[in-house]
Design goal:
The protein folds into 2 domains: 117 residues, Response regulator (Rossmann fold), CATH 3.40.50.2300; 103 residues, Arc Repressor Mutant, subunit A (Orthogonal Bundle), CATH 1.10.10.10. 28% of the residues are buried. The chain is globular, with a radius of gyration of 19 Å. Helix 2 packs parallel to helix 3 and helix 6 crosses helix 8. Helix content is 40%, strand content 20%. With 232 residues, it is α/β, with parallel strands linked by helices. A 5-stranded parallel sheet has the order 2-1-3-4-5, sandwiched between helices. Strands 6-7-8-9 form a 4-stranded antiparallel sheet, with no helix packed on it. Strands 10-12-11 form a 3-stranded antiparallel sheet.
């Protein structure tokens, strides 16, 4: 059973989340402040942390940094802070995703499922479906799903090495927000973390090649001011 550490200083919300998660098959442990959250993460060995940023003793971003010093456990932020800067700070500190209060329970559960799937080790990378295309990142091939298995050679899309690098990062985090800073550092290195125009151009190229309607993308989405999200 997946165990979730829920951290929030609102007793009613903490209780409601505990009941909801238990009803959907999760085991939960709770903490009402940062100090108990850090202690709970060390002692209870949760599979995921659901963390509020506005804690009474330690700021949530500092809790993320302290957790990231010793564990890669998935962290989803659940916070009422609406400013983009707060979201970026939390994601850059090491959070995996961000859900804003008030939240939709079904959306939250979907984010939890996505985060736990990403944290499950896989023996090998499996092909990913994006619209009509099947993407094999191991062999660097993109083929038309409608034609695969049919007689003759399937239609293929060819990407540049940099386009593959950007796509690799997005596909590795299905459903999650990937910050601009993370993408830039992963593809171009730490000296390029402010060159957001690079991303705009390469994501535009990827949409032109992979989306059915590049002007209204369904799979490679922009989170304005934050980053990008791949939706299978």
């Amino acid at each position: 059973m997946t165990r979730i550490l829920v951290v929030d200083d609102e007793p009613q919300l903490l209780r409601a989340l505990q009941i909801t998660l238990k009803g959907h098959g999760y085991d939960t442990v709770t903490a009402a402040d940062g100090r108990h959250a850090l202690a709970g993460a060390a002692s209870a060995h949760p599979d995921l942390v659901l963390l509020d940023l506005g804690l009474p003793d330690i700021d949530g971003v500092d809790v993320i940094r302290q957790l990231r010093a010793w564990t890669p456990i998935p962290i989803i932020i659940l916070s009422g802070r609406l400013a983009s800067r707060a979201k970026v700070d939390a994601l850059d500190a090491g959070a995996d995703d961000y859900v804003t209060k008030p939240f939709n329970v079904e959306e939250l559960l979907a984010r939890l499922r996505a985060a736990t799937r990403r944290a499950t080790p896989r023996q090998k990378a499996e092909p990913v479906r994006l619209g009509r295309w099947i993407i094999d990142t191991a062999d660097r091939r993109i083929t038309d799903a409608a034609e695969s298995g049919a007689a003759g050679e399937a239609s293929e899309i060819h990407l540049s090495p940099t386009e593959w690098q950007v796509l690799d990062v997005l596909l590795a985090h299905p459903g999650a927000l990937v910050t601009q800073r993370h993408l830039l550092q992963a593809v171009w290195g730490p000296t390029y973390v402010e060159e957001t125009h690079y991303l705009r151009q390469y994501v535009k190229h990827l949409r032109r090649k992979l989306e059915q309607d590049p002007s209204r993308p369904r799979h490679l989405l922009t989170e304005p001011g934050l980053g990008y999200r791949f939706l299978p």
